[in-house]
Design a protein that fits this description.
6% strand, two-stranded antiparallel sheet, 143 residues, single chain
């Protein structure tokens, strides 16, 4: 008889383990389901950093960018070129100036947009852009 009780005991123990594991898993899932109610998350809109200040040259670069928004593509190209030149000058003196870098990147992106809108194709032939302050020649290097 002892030989027959061992298989029944191990069968009973296996069923008990399976039931205990299932019960533990259900309890764990129930606790995880309640966890969402334990935390309240509040989102706030992003704000500009207060440490960034616009110096005089960057202020004029920003004015050129704002003026370019209302201009035709060819005139906007001149204003965006001036803004890029001004912010690049600030970056040469202060390479870690984040405001100057941001304005420069924005101006360059707008220049690419302006060139696309005007169909100037400076990669085929040099294009001269006249602004209030100077002339710029857009050229593409030969391959």
């Amino acid at each position: 008889m002892k030989g027959k009780t061992k298989p029944m005991q191990s069968c009973f123990q296996n069923r008990w383990r399976v039931a205990a594991n299932c019960g533990f898993a259900l309890l764990l899932f129930q606790w995880c389901g309640c966890a969402a109610h334990l935390a309240t998350v509040q989102t706030e809109p992003a704000r500009l950093p207060t440490g960034l200040s616009v110096e005089e040259p960057l202020g004029s670069a920003t004015k050129y960018l704002i003026a370019a928004e209302r201009e035709q593509p060819s005139a906007a190209l001149g204003h965006d070129l001036l803004a890029a030149k001004i912010s690049y000058g600030v970056l040469e003196r202060q390479p870690k100036n984040e405001s100057a870098r941001s304005i420069y990147n924005f101006a360059v992106a707008r220049i690419v947009q302006d060139v696309d809108r005007t169909d100037l194709e400076p990669w085929r032939h040099p294009v001269t852009v006249v602004t209030d302050e100077r002339r710029y020649t857009l050229v593409s290097p030969k391959p």
